Amino acid sequence: MRFYARCAREAWRRSWDAANAWRPVLALLVLYGGARLAGLDLTFPGEGEFALAIGTGLFIVVAWLTVFLVQMIAVPPRFDAELRAQLERPIPQPVATIALPPAPEPIKAAPAPRKVLPRIDVRLHDQMHETAAIDSSGGKLPVSRAYRARITNRGDKPIHRCQLFFNNLTHIQVVSGPFDLAPGEHRDLPVLRVIDEADEPHALLYFLDRETWKVATGQAAWLPEPGRFKVRVLSADAPATSLEVELSRSTGTPLAWTLVEAAEVEEAPAGRKRKSRAIAEAIVEPSSGD
């Protein structure tokens, strides 16, 4: 249908072209004049004094329709001939040229690759000695040392619905409610609280209320055992990021719990390199004054 519509548009355009229309129109007018001279009545019946004008007009319309039909029949072969001519047109071949080798440029030292920072960066920031901490309802929390993680948006776009987790292979604890970070913004959240002033010192994980960012009332705390853990941050529109940490408990007196980052080291057992984790710094047991 699109092809025939194109043919009709082309026939319409060419039927109004005087170079194409004058011959059939002139022939019909000659026939009309001859019929009149021969005494034939070519008036349109039933129209009175306008019958002759109407009959003449009808002859002109018939002449134009004849030109249009002729053009409509002639357009498809012309389109086909134009398409064949385009397909059979020889493609010009590029002229072979001899390229001279460019002059050698002085060797430049390759620039050092830029370190690409992750969009979310997680680090153990520091620890605070909390003596007057309260939960979201105002209840007083035990005196503790709070290890805090700093979560930073290193990208150039906002990050939405971040959440902090503390987990190992068998346990996953959600630490915080969702929060947003603007580009360059950071947030410090306690990921672990160590209770030293007790008969049996222990480490606790609480859930932080998303409105007050204090320990949520009535949330059960997880008492983790010593070992390897991950401080993990998940977001709705950023890759997951995690930081491996080591939680250890002293065996001497006074009892103490310590949380440190674990750093990568390379070993070469059996001639092959293998990445493992090691404690970044020595565990220092706090004294009675800490």
CATH H-level superfamily of the largest domain: Immunoglobulins
Strand content: 25-35%
* Low-pLDDT sequence parts: 270-290
Rg over CA atoms, rounded to whole Å, is: 46 Å
CATH topology of the largest domain: Immunoglobulin-like
How many domains? The number is 2
Number of strands: 11
Shape: elongated
Would you write up a description of this structure?
This protein is α+β, with helices and mostly antiparallel strands and 290 residues long. It has two domains: 2-87, no CATH class; 120-279, Sandwich (Immunoglobulin-like). 25% of the residues lie in helices and 29% in strands. The protein is built from three helices and eleven strands. The protein has helices at 2-15, 18-37, 51-88, and strands at 120-130, 144-153, 159-167, 172-174, 179-181, 186-195, 202-204, 227-234, 241-249, 257-267, 274-279. Strands 3, 4, 5, 8, 9, 10 and 11 form a seven-stranded antiparallel β-sheet that branches. Strands 1-2-6-7 form a four-stranded antiparallel β-sheet, with no helix packed on it. Strand 9 (241-249) and strand 10 (257-267) form a beta hairpin. It is elongated, with a radius of gyration of 46 Å. The model is unreliable at 270-290 (pLDDT under 50).
Secondary structure layout:
Layout: H1 2-15, H2 18-37, H3 51-88, E1 120-130, E2 144-153, E3 159-167, E4 172-174, E5 179-181, E6 186-195, E7 202-204, E8 227-234, E9 241-249, E10 257-267, E11 274-279
Antiparallel strand pairs: 1-2, 2-6, 3-4, 3-5, 3-8, 6-7, 8-9, 9-10, 10-11
Helix pairs in contact: 1-3, 2-3
